[in-house]
Design a protein that fits this description.
Elements (H helix, E strand, L loop, with lengths): L1 H13 L13 H15 L7 H8 L13 H12 L3 H14 L6 H15 L2 H17 L6 H17 L3 H11 L20 H8 L5 H13 L6 H12 L6 H11 L3 H14 L2 H13 L3 H12 L4 H12 L5 H11 L4 H14 L3 H14 L2 H12 L5 H13 L5 H8 L5 H12 L4 H13 L3 H11 L5 H12 L1
Helix pairs in contact: 1-2, 3-8, 4-5, 5-6, 6-7, 6-8, 7-8, 8-9, 8-10, 9-10, 10-12, 11-12, 12-14, 13-14, 14-16, 15-16, 15-17, 16-18, 17-18, 18-20, 19-20, 20-22, 21-22, 22-24, 23-24, 24-26, 25-26
């Protein structure tokens, strides 16, 4: 999923520390929140959900013709619908069509009557909803709601099929098994086009028993014609929701063999929800053998969702695999920091010394900072003080250590005089500016008064000017008065 890559990069981007320009504070809590959001979003597959949600989200539009004789009755029916009084709303929409057959509201009233009946979830009302939609299709084919009517019709059929209605089951089987790639109006089916009866029928399979749904879905996934791509994308999501002994093998087959990249990526994602040893081994195989970087990143995320020693070891192997894409290795490092934190923290600290790529070193510093704790903060502080280390890595380690509540301000201020590197002193000034303790401001004032480097004094004065502490104002007044 492209969005997973973009979100990960977004979190990584706002956590970087520019080498020269001042940057706004990035509290650790804010980063943790972003990480949590990333995890939540990443757990949602890139499926087209409009079809599944359409009837649930539909709302009748406001009245549009005050001079129409059916206007007041439509408004009353709409009010009942929006208040969840579905039986009464269905009766009111039916009354509108009966009393005012030539009203502008009548063609759409059949859809809203059927929708209200569907919302009751009562078997007899569902059958009535099906009949009402059939009537609208026959007599009001040009109604504005006809497109939504096809999607609603499939939802109704799905609900009836789940309740054992033979006609509904036959309808779903007929449409989902269709191998005719043409449409009534020509062209291929579009996965976002819920008016296509095959797409609507696939959506309805979500509500059917697995023993009836799975054979249909397998037939769809076996297709290789161009016009079946959107159907296979829909089918892979639906099969993932069917918890049967076949589900894992079907997902594995799609992940390895489907010609469509999105289908393969979706299958990889859903394998993470299976979590078996077989699925874990398959994900590792994808990491080792796939030449598709996006698919490899998907496999890394899927492994991160499996809570097993085997999956954790595979993430470690990927983090160190020299011929793996850097982005996949970076993702492995990130997700290791989000699980099994004690053992993984030890591992990441030792991994850093074996890395040669600065981007991966950067990601490892960030990952360790997210785990937190005294051992990790001490490691960051030691790295910051290590004159043999790359200065950019030292600056980033210092930044993240300074954001943590696990490092005392006394320790941070004591480090300034021991730092001989000018870049590191400048970074320390920035770190002090992000702390809220009064002693941090005192240190900035001390630097502004006594540091022998005029540029560093100017930097300290700049950040003093960002403080609202009365001591800052008093000091600036003293400088101006000199």
């Amino acid at each position: 999923m492209v969005f997973l890559h973009l979100l990960f990069r977004a979190v990584a981007t706002f956590t970087q520390v520019p080498a020269t320009a001042p940057v706004p504070p990035v509290p650790l809590a804010r980063v943790a929140h972003a990480v949590a959001r990333l995890r939540a979003v990443a757990a949602v597959p890139a499926v087209t959900a409009r079809a599944e949600a359409a009837p649930e989200l539909a709302r009748a539009p406001a009245g549009w013709n005050a001079d129409d004789p059916g206007d007041s009755l439509y408004r009353a029916a709409r009010s009942l619908l929006n208040r969840g009084r579905y039986n009464e709303a269905a009766a009111a929409f039916a009354d509108l069509a009966k009393r005012y057959p030539k009203s502008d509201y009548t063609p759409d009233s059949y859809y809203w009557q059927a929708f209200s009946l569907y919302k009751t979830a009562e078997p007899s009302k569902l059958k009535q909803a099906r009949s009402v939609l059939d009537y609208q299709r026959t007599h009001y084919a040009d109604a504005a709601t006809r497109g939504d009517g096809e999607s609603l019709y499939a939802q109704v059929q799905g609900a009836l099929a789940q309740q054992g209605d033979p006609d509904a089951r036959a309808w779903i089987d007929r449409h989902a098994r269709s191998v005719d790639t043409s449409r009534t109006q020509g062209g291929c089916a579009n996965g976002n086009d819920d008016d296509d009866p095959r797409i609507a029928a696939l959506n309805a399979l979500l509500q059917m028993d697995a023993d009836r749904a799975v054979p249909v879905l397998k037939k769809v996934l076996e297709r290789r014609d161009t016009c079946s791509v959107s159907l296979r994308r829909k089918a892979i999501f639906i099969i993932s929701q069917q918890h049967t002994p076949e589900t894992e093998d079907i997902l594995l087959g799609a992940a390895r063999n489907d010609p469509d990249e999105e289908v393969r990526e979706q299958a990889v994602f859903w394998l993470s929800q299976v979590g078996s040893a077989k699925a874990t081994s398959a994900l590792d195989s994808i990491l080792l053998n796939s030449s598709n970087p996006d698919l490899q990143k998907k496999a890394v995320f899927a492994l991160s969702q499996i809570n097993s020693p085997q999956a954790a070891q595979m993430l470690r192997d990927e983090a160190e695999r020299a011929n793996a894409p850097v982005e996949a290795r970076a993702d492995a490092i990130f997700w290791l920091s989000q699980q099994g934190r004690g053992a993984n923290a030890d591992y990441l600290r030792t991994l850093y010394g074996r890395l040669t790529d600065n981007d991966l070193k950067d990601k490892t510093i960030f990952a360790i900072s997210q785990i937190g704790g005294a051992d990790n903060v001490n490691w960051l502080m030691d790295l910051a003080a290590n004159g043999q280390e790359d200065v950019d890595m030292r600056k980033k380690a210092l930044f993240w250590a300074g954001q943590s509540n696990d490092v005392s301000l006394e320790r941070l201020t004591g480090l300034y005089d021991r730092m001989k590197d000018r870049d590191m002193r400048e970074q320390m000034i920035f770190v002090y500016s992000q702390r809220h303790e009064g002693a941090a401001l005192d240190k900035l004032i001390d630097i502004a008064k006594h540091d022998t480097d005029p540029e560093l004094r100017k930097k300290a004065i700049f950040w003093i000017g960002q403080s609202h502490d009365p001591k800052a104002v008093q000091y600036l007044q003293e400088v101006i008065s000199q």
